[in-house]
Amino acid sequence: DAKTTQPPSMDCAEGRAANLPCNHSTISGNEYVYWYRQIHSQGPQYIIHGLKNNETNEMASLIITEDRKSSTLILPHATLRDTAVYYCIVRVAIYGQNFVFGPGTRLSVLP
Amino acid sequence: SAVISQKPSRDICQRGTSLTIQCQVDSQVTMMFWYRQQPGQSLTLIATANQGSEATYESGFVIDKFPISRPNLTFSTLTVSNMSPEDSSIYLCSAKAGARFFGPGTRLTVL
């Protein structure tokens, strides 16, 4: 599995966009980029995933560089409820494969 | 998507006893997963539970300590046996239904 690197922590002002980077320079052609978050005392929550095209859903946008070696999760208008640990995971999207969680980025949205 | 529930949500147990955690998924899934999250740490996979076969355990986890049942396609249990204070953690159930979904976790404290 490709290894991912994320900053350990970030701050963001409420109402501003939160841009969370992830480096996955050893990603292979059939590996997807997944983002999850874990709000305190809850289970991880799926946010978004992508292969090579940028993706957007009701929660966030995922921007993947053309060489696929890095990506950015964008929360367009961060709220206090977005304070959480955000995990970037690279996995081949085949059945039953393990998800390996790194330490993630602790995002603090400040009032 | 899938909605996953766990029981109990938390428990405080005495050393040497055992606790069985239940996980219920609102749709049929072939594979379910059990994770442990120790205080302040990321998630670690304990085992993968297939319906109708033995669970597959990750390195460092054994069936005698963490027996798992998977009687049907929507339900699984994890037992934490002969508990010690080092077993104090959050235990999370997960299932693959498209993306990977997680339960809310069971917070276990062993005295």
Radius of gyration of chain B: 13 Å
Total helical segments of chain B: 0
Distance between the termini of chain B: 37 Å
Quaternary structure state of the chains depicted: heterodimer
Mean pLDDT of chain B: 94
Question: How many extended strands of chain A?
Answer: 9
Note the beta-strand portion of chain B.
over 45%
Largest sheet of chain A: 5 strands, mixed
What is the molecular shape of chain A? globular
Helix/strand order of chain A = EEEEEEEEE
Overall form of chain B: globular
Whole-angstrom Rg of chain A: 13 Å
- Residues in helices of chain A, as a percent range: under 10%
Residues in helix, % of chain B: under 10%
Question: SS-based structural class of chain B?
Answer: mainly beta
Largest sheet strand order of chain A? 1-9-8-3-4
Query: What is the count of β-strands of chain B?
Result: 11
List keywords for this structure.
heterodimer; A: mainly beta; five-stranded mixed β-sheet; four-stranded antiparallel β-sheet; B: mainly beta; seven-stranded mixed β-sheet
Summarize the structure.
Chain A is mainly β and 111 residues long.
Describe the protein:
The complex is a heterodimer of chains A (111) and B (111). Chain A is mainly β and 111 residues long. In chain A, 0% of the residues lie in helices and 47% in strands. Chain A is built from no helices and 9 strands. Chain A has strands at 9-13, 18-23, 31-38, 45-50, 55-56, 61-64, 70-75, 84-92, 105-110. Chain A has a 5-stranded mixed beta sheet, with no helix packed on it. In chain A, strand 6 (61-64) and strand 7 form a beta hairpin. The radius of gyration of chain A is 13 Å and the shape is globular. The model of chain A has no long low-confidence stretch (mean pLDDT 91). Chain B is mainly β and 111 residues long. Chain B is built from no helices and 11 strands. Chain B has strands at residues 4-7, 10-13, 19-25, 31-37, 43-50, 56-57, 68-72, 75-80, 89-97, 99-102, 106-110. In chain B, strands 2, 4, 5, 6, 9, 10 and 11 form a 7-stranded mixed beta sheet that branches. In chain B, a hairpin with a 5-residue loop joins strand 4 and strand 5 (43-50). The chains are: A mainly beta (111), B mainly beta (111).
